[in-house]
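Deliverable D4.2, example record:
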Amino acid sequence: MNVFFPDNGFVLLRREEGHLYMFVRAFYKGNEDQGRRLNLILDTGAYITVISRRTAIYCGFDKLPSKVVTINGFGGNGETADAVRIPGLRILDKLITDVPVLIPHRKDLTQEVLGLNVLEYFNYYIDTENSRLYMKLNQNPMPYDEMVACGEIYTMEEPK
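Output generated by the structure prediction step:
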């Protein structure tokens, strides 16, 4: 198997302060060509994607139906966030729809991550030497299910 997937393209990653960043396009509604460009940390240790409140407002995601949950493991324990499903994210030429994301309530939480709930739609290889993320569609993704535990990084529960 060719681990680099060169026939399916790659995303250039940017290194900064020990993190790898990548650009994706987020869509709220309407023409997909008008999606908002987001710069997210590639975080293979995070199960779910997290965007800041500021980005959510910029993209219009603050208007989507949401459920308030508690996050443990992101900026501390017991933080509340809105769990929403955004209409779509595009990586390379691949559109992933109905994407679960968390939007922390604290306005000072600005770190934004692309989690495994998006990456699981791809077979991927991170080439850290050349700062590239090689990707091809995963034919058997395991889509996010609210009943699935979110692992060590994120546990979500209804606030008390």
